[in-house]
Design brief:
With about 140 residues, this protein is low in regular secondary structure. The protein contains two helices and four strands.
């Protein structure tokens, strides 16, 4: 489906239980709904060079995902839930609006897992955790 003028994706993809690879690169996709991430067998997902500005946290539902390509979108960050993709082997996010500090300093050295990169970033910048207090 690469290089098609697709603007909107189906809300629910659960009707494709055997789909292993999906290439939606170079389309015109602006938005992905939570239901899109209901592909139980997907291993390779290419959403590169679209117009995505956010990735829903429901991406964690892609428990079989091994390769994710998000190059060339307009993503300022990835959802924390990406760390829950246990089988993810490759993550491509160049040419986005993500923090250059994270990718230039940490990905050019010895290979690290995404979890290790995030942990190192937190330690290096002494990021503090402040839980949100809700008042009733």
């Amino acid at each position: 489906m690469r290089n098609n003028p697709i603007i909107q994706l189906p809300i629910d993809m659960s009707g494709l239980p055997k789909l292993v690879e999906l290439n939606l690169s170079f389309c015109l996709i602006h938005y992905i709904s939570d239901g899109f991430f209901s592909l139980p067998a997907i291993e390779d997902l290419n959403l590169s060079y679209n117009h995505l500005t956010t990735i829903p946290s429901s991406i964690v539902n892609l428990s079989t995902l091994q390769h994710l390509n998000l190059d060339g979108n307009q993503l300022p960050a990835l959802p924390f839930s990406v760390l829950g993709l246990a089988k993810l082997q490759t993550l491509q996010i160049k040419n986005n609006f993500t923090s250059k500090k994270l990718w230039s300093e940490y990905s050019s050295k010895s290979p690290m897992s995404l979890k290790d990169m995030c942990a190192k970033l937190v330690l290096d910048f002494e990021v503090e955790y402040h839980p949100t207090v809700q008042m009733s």
